[in-house]
Design a protein that fits this description.
Blueprint (H helix, E strand, L loop, with lengths): L4 H18 L4 H14 L4 E10 L5 E10 L2 E8 L3 E6 L4 E5 L5 E5 L1 H18 L7 E7 L3 E7 L5 E5 L3 H9 L8 H12 L6 H17 L9 E3 L15 H6 L4 E2 L6 E6 L9 E5 L8 E3 L4
Parallel strand pairs: 3-7, 4-8, 6-10, 7-9
Antiparallel strand pairs: 1-2, 2-3, 4-5, 5-6, 11-12, 12-13, 13-14
């Protein structure tokens, strides 16, 4: 999809106004910021980040960002990889190829978001909203190049962050209104309650995902393709501001001292209370920790 003159003007305005903040902001915040421009140009809606949806087994499914509009709900999964991105709608794993020749395999964001949409639809059904139109949007950073991507479903879009406005506009012009402003407000309040979860729920969510991925880890089909892990060689393929999503969900992290699995924890005492860090699962026998940069 080619960019129009309006999209180019919007991008120039964003670059001019947000240059300093771009240096320290990543992922979901950048996506939410792009949506402010979408709303500014008349396609209004409400934005919620980090929505924890209950599942039938008592666990949760976390959505990066939802955009609730008169057309339906845009369900957004943010991925901050560098390099060339290869994938398609039906493949279970995609590949990020770095300039140094290294390839990193990661679970399909389309399938990941399909699960999110399933539980979002289930939850809204329980609240009296059935057959809500939902649009899956997989959003990569501007630093990567989507080299080869085969997606045929109209309600699934794979794009770079600077093309959010163009894709939302394209969907907006094709589908009719299904919600009034009052219904948008009510759905927003319903889902907003799922964003204010405590630290225990967030930790449990991350650890449950980590365990599942470890158990179902696929065999490598290409010996040159490596799983995405936080090593110095591929660190540029993973945004440091989103370790829980890009690292913990896709590959377990091993302790450099004893080789055991690292788990995401939250400091409960001292000057760093509330900060997240990786701690060795063999604690107290192994006391290795790795601090994370908080947004």
């Amino acid at each position: 999809m080619a960019k129009g003159l309006l999209d180019i003007l919007i991008e120039e305005a964003i670059d001019a106004f947000w240059t300093d903040e771009r240096k320290g902001a990543y992922g979901e915040k950048l996506t939410a910021r792009e949506l402010k421009w979408v709303k500014f140009f008349g396609r209004k809606g409400n934005t919620l980040r980090n929505v924890y949806l209950p599942k039938d087994d008592g666990e949760t499914s976390e959505i990066d960002l939802v955009y609730i509009t008169t057309k339906g709900i845009f369900v957004m999964e943010s991925k901050n990889y560098s390099g060339w991105i290869f994938g398609d709608e039906k493949s279970a794993y995609w590949t990020a190829s770095l300039p140094n020749g290294q390839k990193n395999r990661f679970y399909s964001p389309i399938l990941q978001n399909k699960t999110h949409i399933k539980w979002l639809d289930n939850y809204l059904n329980q609240q009296g909203y059935q057959q809500v139109p939902m649009f899956s949007m997989i959003i990569f950073s501007e630093r990567c190049e989507i080299k080869k991507m085969n997606v045929t479903s109209e309600n699934i879009r794979v794009l770079k962050r600077d093309m959010i406005h163009a894709h939302v506009r394209d969907i907006w012009d094709k589908v009719p209104d299904v919600f009034t402003d009052e219904e948008i407000a009510r759905i927003t309040e319903i889902l907003k309650s799922l964003t204010n979860v405590d630290v225990a729920i967030k930790e449990a969510h991350i650890q449950n995902i980590n365990k599942k991925h470890n158990k179902s880890e696929a065999k490598k089909e290409d010996p040159d393709v490596q799983e995405t892990t936080p090593t110095e060689d591929n660190q540029k393929a993973i945004e440091p501001a989103e370790p829980a999503k890009t690292i913990m969900e896709e590959k377990k992290v091993l302790c450099p001292k004893c080789g055991s699995e690292l788990v995401l924890r939250v400091a409960k005492k001292g000057d760093k209370a509330g900060n997240r860090f990786y701690g060795c699962s063999r604690f107290p026998k192994c006391r290795y920790i790795k601090e994370l940069e908080e947004e």
